[in-house]
Amino acid sequence: MAGFFLPGDSLLIVAGVLASEAFATQGIQLNIWGLLIGGPIFAILGAQLGHWLGARYGRRLFDKPNSRFFKQEYVHKAEHYFQKFGPRRAIVLARFIPIVRTFMNPVAGVLGMPAKQFLLWNIIGAIIWVDGILLVGYLLADQLVNAIGGPDKIDKYIVPFVLVIVLISAIPIFIEIIRERRSKRREKISA
To answer: What is the value of pTM for the model shown?
Structure first.
């Protein structure tokens, strides 16, 4: 369930930036080939686990009250995409939709998508999503370095850059926490 806590898109962009040649001079360069191969593998494994849990435990996996990170609405959104786009496209497209990507895998298992079919579309979706976003970060890194005034200024800007990306990604989580607290206050006032 790490997908609930990790802002996947922004982490992939930052990893792509840190894998670029622009950061090699600073000694922080990540291995782009390791990311391009390893990233999809781990995304595939996580999604397969979600599908297996959905197939194994069925609807009761989602029979729980709403909480900070779980809402019945998220399950309904994933089911809606599954029905609207069909299983194949839904598995690929869900990778690009926060929250839906987390719930799509167990929903596919609950709805009876065969494991082999899920695996095929899971692989396709993971490669497109992970490698596509990594490459965006990788290719934008040179522009970033030029914008900050050259590679010698990277140390001054990299930590704030990473923090800004992660904080922007975390905004929806904070909004959800605030909404939940307000909802609980309203319930107490109404009671």
So the answer is: 0.74
